Amino acid sequence: MKIDLTDTTAGEINKALVQGRRAIGTPAVGMVLTLVIVTDEENAYDALKAANDASREHPSRTLVVIKRISRTPRDRTSSRLDAEVRVGAEAGTGETVVLRLYGEVVGHADSVVLPLLLPDAPVVVWWPVNAPLEPAKDPLGALAQRRVTDTYASEEPVRELTARAEAYTPGDTDLSWTRITPWRSMLAAALDQVTCQVQAVEVEGEEFNPSCELLAMWLADRLDVPVRRSPSAGPGLTGVRMDTTCGPITLDRADGSLATLSIEGQPARAVALKRRDTAELIAEELRRLDPDDTYASALRYGVDRLNTVPDRGASFSEESEAPTSASTSASASAGAGEPSPAEDAPVAEPEPVQEAAKAPAKKATARAAKKTPSRKASAK
Question: What is the pTM of this model?
Fold first, then answer.
């Protein structure tokens, strides 16, 4: 059932929601949270479809906020709120309100959304595209317990990671991090099967893919060993190789769906590691509403590396690791074949080489991934 409202108010929208629920005989008590999607008209359909699919696992009230650009001075001075209220089959297992804001009301979206939030229920705000630099300080982000962004949708994904790291607030997360959950689980499980020590790691994937950068930073942060980023044609992440004292451990995925796990002394095995769609990613993020300390730790590691390498600039994609450092370069070089900034820096004496086998391999287990590390190679 769909109810169209033109030049309306939040009060009228609430009345329409009650009317729709009565018409189809569905109560609101089954919904567990409010999901606020802040997007534009172009991306609204895909975002709403993903949210409706995710609502099968998490019944919720979905509020889609679309800020319409005023094209004339008259439009900019006049305010209007149009809404579509959807309940029943058109709204998944919850209910949906599509809000289109015009004129001055665009700057007060939080005032429109606040009366429509489910009482005593968590709030999650998701920006599929064009997320603010500081999500927690955004008026809509301030209403939420969890704030979801997607650096992969930005024009410069790797540079966007830097902004996310510098503005991180507990409750922030990013779908680029969610995409590597199966990789982290598989690598941790592989290390649980051996008693060797990890000496070095290589992460292979698309050159400017933020998920590849985050996986490299997570491995360097948890294992405290050198991590090398190697670019590939993709799609996405294509492989991870861990050199251990017992031989290499490799996880290769060339086609984006099926991967091969190889451990020294064991037969190679095929594992399902397909690229997930947005609905699956959002459903995963809605399963937890507490701060993701592991994501925060990986981001802090990247910022520490950025601040300790001379002339690095603001990009995680430059190859800036000095050959004698035991820390990791969090990403691949933006220009292949060019000398790294660390090699060009004339002032810094190279630090002493640390023992590569310093950290036990089992630091990457799922149990250890829940802890925030107490040391970082980049701060030494």
Answer: 0.76
